[in-house]
Write a structure and sequence with these properties.
The chain is about 25% helix and about 25% strand. The protein contains six helices and ten strands. The strands form two sheets. Strands 1, 2, 3, 4, 5 and 6 form a six-stranded mixed β-sheet that branches. A four-stranded antiparallel β-sheet has the order 8-7-10-9, with helices on one face.
Length: about 250
């Protein structure tokens, strides 16, 4: 079968990196670009809080152009969809046939994505779909990826989590009931080295910042990068998300 052209939705975290790795290794897809949702007020990846400059550095290390989808903090679901439609129209016009995502098991979100893509005759590709998240976290480390925790929900983790490397020790130390890949919003990560990059992405650890939830139920810093609407992840039984810890990662030399 001929290699087909695809764009990749990219948050800068482990799921995006693993999905890109699998897509490239499959031989089925030529990944043309990375698409990242950026909050224009802060110049950061929505929810993850990672600076735009670091995402640009990742794209350069991956040898791919970065396409930015700007969505403000207070954007409605309709505004997000409008930005997404504009993005998909552009990629379709450029010859892209499919869009790759790092989703693992959120069926409603996958169905929503596929419905949006179908409007433009695009296919959704989900290389990680249905994977066991503990096995996937172990595969991430075994493949030689390196990442740092950049965001942690306070229903599961405290300020000591952000800035830690995403390794076996971190996964083993997660509280009971927490997903090993953070799929319920337990944590987000920034990947700075691994097989999808020609060279490591230099960065430095900045200050730890705590952002309480806004009255609307979203982190005060920004909205979620990968959701069609702003929302709070489900916490562990008996726990409640009050806010998120962020590590302000700084571009390196």
């Amino acid at each position: 079968m001929a290699v087909r052209r695809a764009a990749m939705f990219w948050s800068g975290g482990k799921d995006s990196a693993m999905a890109l790795h699998r897509a490239r290794n499959s031989g089925d897809w030529q990944v043309e670009c990375l698409i990242t949702t950026i909050n224009p007020e802060f110049g950061r990846v929505s929810m993850h809080g990672v600076r735009e400059a670091l995402i640009e550095a990742q794209a350069q290390a991956a040898g791919l152009p970065l396409r930015r989808m700007y969505v403000p903090t207070a954007a409605t679901g309709e505004a997000y969809e409008a930005a997404l439609r504009e993005t998909l129209i552009r990629e379709k016009a450029a010859g892209v046939e499919a869009v790759i995502f790092g989703d693992i098991f959120l069926a409603d979100l996958r169905a929503w994505r596929e419905a949006q893509l179908a409007e433009f005759g695009l296919e959704g590709v989900f290389p990680l779909w249905g994977a066991d998240t503990r096995a996937l976290a172990a595969e991430f480390v075994a493949e030689g990826f390196q990442a740092v925790i950049c965001c942690a929900g306070d229903a599961w983790l405290d300020e000591t989590a952000v800035g830690r490397p995403l390794d076996a020790a971190f996964v083993d130390a997660l509280p009971p009931g927490a997903d090993p890949c953070g799929e319920n919003g337990e944590y987000h990560s920034f990947v700075h080295a691994g097989p999808v990059f020609a060279a490591a992405v230099p960065f430095a650890a900045g200050e730890r910042v705590y952002r309480p939830l806004s009255p609307a139920g979203a982190p005060a810093l920004q909205a979620d990068a990968d959701e069609p609407q702003i929302g709070v992840p489900a916490a562990l039984p008996g726990a409640a998300v009050r806010g998120f810890w962020f590590m302000d990662l700084l571009p390196g030399a």
